[in-house]
Design brief:
Order of helices and strands: HHEHEHEEHEHEEHEHE
Shape: globular
Number of strands: 9
Distance between the termini: 39 Å
Number of helices: 8
Organism: Nonomuraea salmonea
Largest sheet: 7 strands, mixed
Strand order of the largest sheet: 3-2-1-4-5-9-8
Strand content: 25-35%
InterPro entries: Methyltransf_11 (IPR013216), SAM-dependent_MTases_sf (IPR029063)
Protein name: Methyltransferase domain-containing protein
Radius of gyration: 17 Å
GO molecular function: methyltransferase activity
Helix content: 25-40%
Keywords: Methyltransferase, S-adenosyl-L-methionine, Transferase
Structural class: alpha/beta
């Protein structure tokens, strides 16, 4: 079945711990954008096995998480403890949280699995307090375009599927790409203000750990993910 993370959960989680794109790029960027989170109630939307959840909790945030993969949640509980508020839920469906329950939501590499963002963004806005923040990371639309088949329109909302083999198991994952203006329109249409768009450099030390990845990148920067900070009124 598409996006069956249960089958690759252990391999994906292990890769996520140390990889260039996750451990030295996406996760540090999300933490930088989050800033001082001490005492803030934060929902980790699509928490996976919990590495971002754990990092935010270590910084003093009051964390709740959900994921659509039961196996990922099992791994998260092993990391975070059995008493941590983790829920089996899907961002494409109504969420099991009351209105205005959170100061922040982090949606780390999750929205690009969805064709339509309208209902998911409405739900994320619903569970945020007035003035709350939604921090988003997604596949960079221009990076997706550069990797697309010849003749593909950058301006189309389109799907692509990749076969991932991790930990000896294989799953076919489907991603949805959309141009930057469509992302911005979806965010503002859901009632968010865009307060930051980021294309960050990787974390310090990345070049030393992964020298081969920077041979043709003297600036140290590359296109992979795009980051947003959004705020409710």
């Amino acid at each position: 079945m598409p996006n069956d993370y249960d089958s690759i959960a252990e391999g994906y989680s292990a890769e996520n711990e140390t990889s260039l794109l996750n451990a030295y790029y996406e996760r540090p960027a999300m933490l930088d954008l989050a800033g001082d989170v001490a005492g803030r109630r934060i929902l980790d939307a699509g928490c996976g096995s919990g590495p971002l959840f754990a990092a935010l909790r270590d910084r003093g945030a009051i964390m709740t998480g959900f994921d659509a993969s039961a196996k990922m949640l099992e791994l998260a509980r092993q990391r975070l403890g059995d008493d941590v508020p983790l829920h089996l839920a899907d961002l494409s469906s109504p969420l099991p949280f009351p209105d205005a329950a959170f100061d922040d939501v982090v949606a780390s590499l999750v929205l690009h699995y969805l064709e339509d963002w309208t209902a998911p963004l409405a739900e994320l806005r619903r569970v945020l307090v007035p003035g709350g923040r939604l921090l988003v990371s997604v596949n960079h639309p221009f990076a997706d375009f550069l990797q697309a088949e010849p003749g593909t329109s950058y301006f189309a909302t389109r799907s692509s599927s990749d076969e991932w083999t991790l930990g000896g198991h294989t799953a076919v994952l489907t991603f949805w790409s959309r141009p930057l203006h469509a992302m911005a329109d979806a965010f503002t249409g859901a009632g968010f203000r865009i307060t930051a768009i980021s294309e960050p450099a990787p974390a310090p030390g990345a070049r030393e750990v992964f020298p081969e990845a920077f041979v043709d990148r003297p600036s140290g920067k590359f296109l992979s993910f795009l980051f947003f900070v959004l705020q409710t009124d």
